[in-house]
Amino acid sequence: WEWPSYLDPETQEKGLKVKISSFRRQVRNKLATAKVNGNYVQSIVALNEAIEQGFDETLMLDTDNFVAEGSGENFFMVKDNKLISPDLDASLDGITRRTVIDLAEELNIDFEERKILLEEVFNCDEAFFTGTAVEVVPINSLDNKPISNGLRGPVTEKLQKTYLEQVRGKRTANADWLTTVKR
């Protein structure tokens, strides 16, 4: 059946206004990388903090001040056409994250997983979140500072388009990733 997007088309194109959270993800803690109910409490509080201040989403750092993830999404940035995502010391190894990494490889987009300094995000060319609900959504600003020119970048757009085609069964590549559900 048709699976509607969680975000409206305008947000999918123009992106999210993101706030750096005052809450931190624990580093090298098995609970930090597990999808468990206790982690959602911190995420909800962090997201509410951002929304109360007029933002759409939050970016959480780890206790060593490296970029971790959003309140319920994985983080990616692009610098010099290279896709970069934080290591998994303080974030979930999400299915959507892994799918985007696989698609990047197919599209010949270089990928690197490593620790990311906050200053790098302010100086990156593009940034986006991934997740089951948000799929692939650009980040247009961080703490009211535009990411690059504040628009969805070409790498983000290519990955977003390819991801949406993939999960909607419009690509022949990786067809075995999908299970058809009949009504």
TrEMBL record:
Gene Ontology CC, one term: cytosol
SUPFAM superfamilies named in the record: D-aminoacid aminotransferase-like PLP-dependent enzymes
A biological process from GO: L-valine biosynthetic process
Cofactor(s) listed in the protein's UniProt record: pyridoxal 5'-phosphate
Keywords: Pyridoxal phosphate
Family matches, as InterPro entries: Aminotrans_IV (IPR001544), Aminotransferase-like (IPR036038), BCAT-like_C (IPR043132), Class-IV_PLP-Dep_Aminotrnsfr (IPR050571)
Gene Ontology molecular function, alphabetical: branched-chain-amino-acid transaminase activity
Family membership: Belongs to the class-IV pyridoxal-phosphate-dependent aminotransferase family.
Protein's name according to its UniProt entry: Branched-chain-amino-acid transaminase
